[in-house]
Known about the structure:
The chain is of the alpha/beta class and 807 residues long. 35% of the residues lie in helices and 23% in strands. The strands form 5 sheets. A 7-stranded mixed β-sheet has the order 12-13-14-15-16-18-17, sandwiched between helices.
Amino acid sequence: MGYVLAFDTANEAVVVGIGSVDADGAEAGRIVLKEAPARLVAGEARAAHRASNTVLIPMIDELMAGENIEKDDIAAIVCGRGPGSFTGVRICMAAAKGIASGLEVPLFGVSTLDAVAWGVWESGYRGAMIVAADAMRKEVYPALFMIDSAGAHRLTSDAVVSARAVQDWIDEALAVALPDATPARSDVLVCGDALVKYRGSFAEAGFPVADDALWAPSPEGLLRARRIGGDAATLLPVYTRLSDAEENERVRLSAPEVRNLASGVQAEGALTFRPLDAAHASDVASLESHAMGTDAWSEASVLDELPRKDRTWWAAFVGERLVGYCGGLVVDGQVQVLKIAVEDDMRRRGIARHLIGLVASDARDLGATEMTLEVRASNEGAQRFYGALGIERIGVRPCYYSDREDAVIMTGPFPMVARDVAGMSLKIDEISPAGHAGASNGDVSETDSAADAAVPATVPVSTPLICAFESSCDETASSIIAGDGTILSDVVASQVDFHARFGGVVPEIASRKHIEAICGVADECLERAAVALGRPSLRWRDLDAIAVTYAPGLVGALVVGVAFAKGLAWGSGVPLIAVNHLEGHLYANKIADPAIAPPMVVSLVSGGHTMLVHVKDWANYETLGSTIDDAVGEAFDKVSKALGLGYPGGPIISRYAAKGNPRAIDFPRALMHSGDLRFSLSGLKTAVITYIHKQQEAGMPLNIPDIAASFQQAVVDVQVAKARTALIETGSRTFCLGGGVAANPALRAAYEKMCAKNGFRLVMPPLSACGDNAAMIAEVALDRFAQGKLADFTLDVKAHAPLDEAY
Length: 807
């Protein structure tokens, strides 16, 4: 006999249930566990009030201890997938992924709405029922069930509906699902946490309301609800809509005006991909006519598609010329590929494959898990193409096309790479500078798995072995470090391509991508470390600790990393270490020089921070001065946007500045002579934008290289001058850098010149370690482990955490 551990944090309550199954976790296959009935052994529901991240694992420990259940007795994990509170669902999913990975057991997901319905079934109710969960934004997640003696039967798929329209939605759902015996409103019970806000309106509309004890999932309901999945890496939350930024983008794109959503600096003729907009609908219709013949869609048909929330359309461009497009309809967990075409002379360049991947990425965010399409029976080339993506033939629709040709029906899972990281670019073992022992597998393709890399002879292991995770912004990263400071593996999944078209990081997208990528990143990191150690494999329980960034950063991003790391540490039975992200940037200098030692002054410059720090000793810091408004990286992004150059602004401005005159325009050096070590970038940013507007109003062409160079020089002058003052005032003889802007070539060169002139020692992290990464977090964790500074499972995230405060 084994046990199923089930939990849900989608609402204001944390619900945990432990059920027994007639299957041994060590022997039972996933199929058996997916279907095996679980009998409730212990369960509890506890109000958490947005504190589920601190309550969940201690609750699990209490329940297991009360029943004398050991971790090795657990055969499977079941977690609620929502829909519900975005943060709550992600805490649940991330923790479940970590626990399942650490315990090496399957992870199954259940609908939170289904779990509520089964709880009502347990109460004895029989009849039609609506579960309505609060979707925020004056919206509701409704689902219709029929409850009978056999169980809770779902009659509708997941949806999000305006609170004002939900009663009409219920009436329509009842008429469609139960046409022969449509119940009256008075015979349809309503429950769910949406009643906290809308109980009165449901009651006034004639619906009976369930007792509030039934509004949340129950332990029994979690164990009885239908399970899906089995793989921790691919199980995702229930998504019913895109992020606000993406939905607003769709509104913009469906308008007839030309919109430039290009990201980055694009040379004329460069191949780019972006969401299809209304301005190019006629181009799609033209290519349709050429490629599809009598089955071609008109421009009006394309325009009708773009604003629909259950559609996703992407296009490929060479400059501004549309050369390909793909569209999909998301329904009932599938994305149906509606159209895909590429210009004849642009084929065999991977364009169609990339377009399908983009449509699949959007569809995954809308809850789809597989792809389906029709293709002409005579189009054998297209069938081979789809077959290579894992999409298989399942049947034929006779006389489907207008000329009576048959359509071959094909379906399958989304196209996958060796390690699924949700379509992000994967950077593997880039942080391994000369002089700092580390495993370098740079010659291995980022689409290859670690198992395909050559395995060296077994090497001695310096303990402790610590795995660190970083998810404070838009990078999902993991790194394993050995006791002697060797970076055994370092993996970063970058989201920059997902944010670029919005001109900056979108927190909601960042959080979604972390939950999608974190298992793939973690598994890749573990396998790479095994290769570096010359072992055929490495298990999470072989490590000595798990570390994670807990602050500062985007809360929605941080919670994914922290919940996953806590679950992984708990499941593998190793200690947990909390790390301040900013301290990680200080320690990044150890990657360049492992022997570096305080005292020293460090400049932290990034998109969110600009400060000078006196490092008196490791873990003993004094912030000497920081920005009073914008950070340096933020200013670079805003100036780049004002110039129409795209995101991220730092590298773009730097490239243009290299061609310009840094003294061409006398932009202000704010607080240059303030007598303190504070910074201000807002005035400089405003001055640059004002200059741009005046040039445009005067009809003068913009000399972008000169503007970029002059802006950059104004930033550099202030940064270097204040750094020199800080070194003199503190008496420190060593200067270091940290943060993404530390990769700026002009800034690095200016610091080199200043330090050489004044006799200061300069240490700078390698370019690969300037941005967010987990190797720097692992460096901090190594010291904290040696000092016994461990965290417990009540650890939570913080948006702000000063370096000066001990933790």
